[in-house]
Amino acid sequence: VSTADRLASILDSVASSSLRRVPRASLLELPELYRRLVSELAEARSRGVPSEHLVRLEALVVRAHALLYAPIPVRLGRAFGELLIVFPAAVRRSWRHLALATALLVGGCSWGYLEVDRDPSSAAILLPAALQHNAEESFRQDAKTRDGDPIYGVFYFTNNARVALTAFALGATFGVGTVLVLLFNGVTLGATLAMVGMVGSPRAFFSFVLPHGGLELVSILIAAAGGLRIAEGLLRPGWLRRREALLRTARDSLPLALGAAALLVVAGLVEGWVSPLRMPLAAKGLIGGLIDVALCAYLVSGRSS
Amino acid sequence: MRSTAAPLHEVSTIETPEQIQVDLALAGVGSRGLAYLVDLLWQIVPVVAAGLLAFALLPSNVRPDHLIETGADGQPRPPLLALALLSAVIFFVNFGYFALFEVFYKGQSPGKRMLGLRVVRDGGYPIDGRSALVRNLLRAVDFLPVFYFFGMAALFIGRSGKRIGDYAAGTCVVREHKPSKVPATAPSLTAVGLLSMAERSMVAEFLTRRPGMSADARARVGRVLADRLAARLGQPSPPDPERFLEAL
Known about the structure:
The complex is a heterodimer. Chain A is mostly helical. Chain A is built from 13 helices and no strands. Chain A is elongated, with a radius of gyration of 27 Å. In chain B, strands 6-5-7 form a 3-stranded antiparallel sheet. A two-stranded antiparallel ribbon of chain B has the order 1-2. A two-stranded antiparallel sheet of chain B has the order 3-4. In chain B, strand 1 and strand 2 form a beta hairpin. Chain B is elongated and about 80 Å long.
């Protein structure tokens, strides 16, 4: 039996069942067969054998190569564990981007607040239609009438995670998209704060927002910082070609996006369960404070890279 | 000497650690678009299923025209569980469908499998988790400003089988080699064993020298050679002598 046929039959059996069911002996044969096939292909090319034969050998080389150099299979649990370990270090390494993201959000927020404070009718433009629609009610609501079903956490999570992951990905637009997302959300936040101050009940508002607010905002900012890292790679690639810089920064900053999404699961749970509870404002503030301290402790912990 | 005919499509030449170069056929905009449409259909299935389930969960006293349930306190209450389920399913299909399939099915979403495409890392290596996540998170950028305009522009301009997400992840989409059909007149391997060394080298000699022969001589020699060997192997005279000899 020729090298090519033997290799093909092993590859076929791997493809049709799974690696585990193929006899060990056949698998151990693979590297040797593969190397022999590579030299056969090289020889066949120099001799000029019929093209069908060459094509067959090439296809086999590609298939065997893919199997022999396969990455370690992904285990979701282990991958998540690794993410928890590398995340704090990745955030610390991106502190400049995190600072810039924060500045953009705070800038948008201040402008939105001042604008609505100066001219309340501008809220009609600055706030999303959905929020405006029941603006009167939602800003006047106090914690008592707010629906406290924990299932709301699902909506909070999907909305926030969508914003966070989009802010990350838009880094590849040279940062334009990420900056816009940050400014836009900042303005919405500022305009909302101004409306709450004017027509709503700040007590009720903060009672709802304090437990989860810090965690939620920081998570989104971390994902956006990842986007800004990608943008920096594109704008200032240094000695790299831009496509190489994109490749490097995108892979490097992926933990920022994934870690942020994981934190937003926690934020969604808190927002769904704890935030609507009827409690004194101080207790809510305390819960929020503890969560924020825990977050900070996590982010400064762990190995350095 | 490299492969014979000029390729009909873009290729990416990889070099394995054993220092041999092999061409991978890159997928074009058309096949990738088709694969995407197939995947789009597959993505709609779980969303519709969740939608139907959500509808089934609604209590029967709900009037479907506004889907608002009235709570015990007389306040209107949206069918929360149903909507939460729907929004979770949409989120996970949106962000998880491609990444999970590409990680756990060796670079192939159902649409890519149907069209014979596969995502590989640069250099022909199988895709890993990080690449799959990066290329599919950046899908959002390829989608801008309308229906994958950026992604298609990148495919046309770059000519390397990559949309923006592929550049970021270091991946490209290749066409799987389809095993070509064995010619009908192919002799079995045991049959080849029946031929003598001299006969085999005669075939090899003919095949290497035929590009230099006149068309007339080439056809004649090929015919004679093929008929003689076919007779020796106990097979009928082959319709296409050269293919028969190549198969040998």
